[in-house]
Amino acid sequence: MAGVCLSAQKVEFSARVHAQRIGLEDTLEFTLTLSGVDNPVPPDLSDLTDFAVQSRSQSTEFRMLNGRTSHLTRFEYRLSPRRTGTLTVPALRYEARGQILVTKPIQVEVVKGSVAPPPGQRSLFGEDLFAFPRERGRDQEPVDVRLVTDVSPRSVVVGQQIMVRVRLLTRNTVRAVNLLTEPSISGFWQEWFPVPRSSAGRMREVDGKEYTEYDIRKVALFPNQSGNLTIPPLEFEIILAEDGMSFFSEPRRITRSTAPETIEVRPLPDEATGLPAGDFQFKVESLPQSVKAHEMVTLKLRISGNGNMKTLGVPQLEAGPFFQTFPPKVNRVLDHSGKWLRGTVSAEIPITFRRAGAVSLPPLELRWWDPAAQQIRVMASSPMTVKVMENRAAGEKEAVPAGGAEAVRRGRDIHHIQGEEITDQSNYWNRSRWYTRLLLLPFLLSLVTVIYRGIWEPLIRRSRRLETRRILSRTLKDLLRQNDLGCAAGIIENYLSRRLGMKLSRMNAATIARALEERGVTEREIREFLFLKEKIDSTRFAPRSGEQDDSKDLRRLAEVLRRIDGKIK
Amino acid sequence: MKKTGILLLLLMGFGPAAWGEKTPAFVLANQQYEAGHYAAALDAYSRIAARVVNWKLEFNMGNCCVKLERFVDAKIHYLKAQKLAPTRREIRDNLEYVDERLGHEKVSRQVGFLANLWNHFSALVSLNLISLLLLLSVVLLNGFFIALLWRGRRKWLQYGLGFALMASLLFAGLQAVYQHRIDRRDTAVVTRSQARLRSGPGKGYTVLFTLRSGLDVRVLEKREQWLQVAAGEDVAGWIELAAVEII
Prior knowledge:
heterodimer; A: Immunoglobulin-like; Immunoglobulin-like; 8 helices; 34 strands; B: Serine Threonine Protein Phosphatase 5, Tetratricopeptide repeat; SH3 type barrels; 9 helices
């Protein structure tokens, strides 16, 4: 009754139960098997709502077969059903090595009472009839298997690396080794080494006997508190292979435990509190000697050593008045190949410079406690001075739209806009003052025109005095605008018509003189006016020579008109 | 007439001179994005956005937020970009992506035929162009009117006046619609996780629903510190102003 999952490469995750039908008072044995993953975390059972978890255990199987090793972890649970009916052990998800593994759901029928046989009742087939007769009565060979733990060093400071190695010494043939206890040691930050893929045994003599020795486990521990800390015993199940075993026979399983180990952890000196412990190297790459303002540059630094690289903090660069820093990109890599755990932390700190000029970056410093030398060590980079150039990119060339902005598809991810020019979409003309004024101006002109034509002109026409002044001013303006006397004839006739009420057909020297005389104009002025009018009339249709300048006569005429107008009652 | 023409040309020349922000800063921000420094890129885009309003800025800021896994902020930026450029397909695609990442149900962001037509029209004909046409038609209108006053009734002046009047009304109406669409703030995004939708504007009212962060809602009414919103066709209620960001 198994629900086998999707698997990828060598990673597999499967689920099975021991029975498809149980009673409400029974327990269901539920096993999740995970292979191909080192140091797996227990799966999440929060979706398991139809059952309650009574107990759980974990075993790790480490197989060595024909020089090859494989890693298998079993999570075993005892579940009690919550109700009767057809209950479901749902599909469980597990994420490992970048893959999502899912088991298939399993249905279990739960009935009232119990369906398990009462204790003491043997099955009808009490003996294994399929076992070879030879095995049934066979004597088992003596077992000589022991575990040895190497811990180094045994006296450390907080944060200093301790290497724990578990060796298996055996005089029997071992098929597989499983870790039964939870690989979690309290009081320590731990980094378990990967299980060796091929573990060749070494011959070793102990107490006068020849043993085959295997390295079965290795873990780097970093104590996070001071005091006498204990590494608890680690219990292993060892599966022995025996001569004469058949395909159907059960292998022999024994358990062995390591002895508890006590480590003395001293606190760091007061001046070193909070510092990492170990041996480190610190490098900072130089920045380019000159950069442009607002251009992004990256300050790269690298720390390598044997301390706890997973928790090691990266030296911070505080932003200054002339430059700005951003959260660094940090990468941590561990190296399990050596005798000790080593690692490298790489960080890239983005920096932009706010203005042109010479800008100095303060040195970056790494401080740590060296347990061997019993002192604080400091490594610092040199202060860096960068020449920041002005960013004249705007003035060097016209910003040319790059064929319109490109929307770039980032794989199956999201679009991104790449382009060179953007315009301010909030630059709305209708919200600016100049637009409002320009819009109102024509209305204002119309209003002025309406007032002028509708109010002012009728007002003037009703007022005789204003009307006569207007007639005179218009006439004088028109006269002075003219270049020759002939053009003034019509203007004078218009004036006489409007001012004296004379009809054009009755306009001649006599009638004009009489009309002016009646209105109080002196004889001399009438004569002068008529003289000028005659001159105008004679030149009206006469050919003109380009050299004539009538402006003097026109001004004289204007002067005469002004005097006459003043006299007309 | 000559002088009017020169003035118009100057106006048109003045317009483009105010356009086209020369944006090396935008290019630099893009470079930071390309280099994977998303926080720095977001900061750079934000600094440009303090001076310039453009859909590309909001869009790229949304992208930075996606990369930094701040999906609610990303959605807010994308919706702002969509308001500025409603016809851009990229914005719609990225919004769908963010909805997916937020775990929301897929919401169709397709608009109706008329709305789509309007969006394309407004993308083609900018508000500034409408304003310019309005200005011209108002000038024409008043010009014909003044000419009528000075020169008396002439048929061509009357027809010209009628045409200019209609044009002025049309462009004034278009400008009003454009402005209304720009100014309206009828979309909001829930920023608080498990925000409560209540039956009335106050904490004493019944909680109707709980809204997940990142959900976009339609704003119906505002009353003091409460907003009446509609989420989908059937869900409407009151939510605290502090729990949403209005687009």
